[in-house]
Automatic annotation (TrEMBL):
<keyword id="KW-0732">Signal</keyword>
<feature type="signal peptide">
    <location>
        <begin position="1"/>
        <end position="18"/>
    </location>
</feature>
<dbReference type="GO" id="GO:0009055">
    <property type="term" value="F:electron transfer activity"/>
</dbReference>
<dbReference type="InterPro" id="IPR036909">
    <property type="entry name" value="Cyt_c-like_dom_sf"/>
</dbReference>
<dbReference type="GO" id="GO:0020037">
    <property type="term" value="F:heme binding"/>
</dbReference>
<protein>
    <submittedName>
        <fullName>Cytochrome c</fullName>
    </submittedName>
</protein>
Amino acid sequence: MRRVFILSALLLSFGFSAETLKGTPEEKAVMGYCLQCHSYDYIKTNAPLTQKGWEGVVKKMVNVFKAPIPEDAQKQIIEYLTKYYGKKE
């Protein structure tokens, strides 16, 4: 039973690796803006969302919580979240 649990945990962890977009502008935007306040676990807690759902989350961070995220970085963040933590519309 313990082996099943460990194997399951391992398999789940592979799907949410921080290495997914290592070094890309999208990953850098997430690292530079989102991860200042949130962890990757926070992203996983909200996932999966559609592109419109992620747009809403990012807009809320900017408009409600006053996160200083430039428009171009918002687009990169939404692209990253939709591609790797999204669900099909």
